[in-house]
């Protein structure tokens, strides 16, 4: 009867070890540290930063709605910038004379 629980614990340890890719010891720990660090900087930190920015904007807009200005770059007109070929912006030479 005493050996059955030891066998169960051994089976659980074996299952957990195999499910982690069969790595043991320091290499297993190092791989989990690398995976956790990547997950933090690729998913957790950006979402926290975005949430913090949204809260700061909401607080600023709520405190003084006339002072708050959304910071966005204006979209350039593609025709004036020469990005669309064809009818370019024409200057009136008659007005200059």
UniProtKB/TrEMBL annotation:
The chain crosses the membrane at residues 25-44. Keywords: Membrane, Transmembrane, Transmembrane helix. Residues 69-97 are annotated as: Disordered. This is Uncharacterized protein. The lineage of its organism: Eukaryota, Viridiplantae, Streptophyta, Embryophyta, Tracheophyta.
């Amino acid at each position: 009867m005493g050996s059955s629980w030891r066998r169960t614990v051994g089976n659980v340890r074996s299952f957990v070890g195999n499910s982690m890719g069969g790595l043991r010891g320091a290499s297993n720990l190092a791989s989990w540290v690398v995976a956790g660090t990547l997950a933090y900087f690729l998913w957790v930190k950006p979402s926290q930063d975005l949430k913090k920015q949204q809260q700061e904007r909401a607080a600023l807009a709520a405190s003084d709605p006339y002072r708050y200005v959304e910071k966005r770059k204006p979209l350039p007109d593609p025709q004036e910038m020469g990005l669309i070929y064809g009818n370019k912006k024409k200057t009136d030479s008659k007005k200059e004379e």
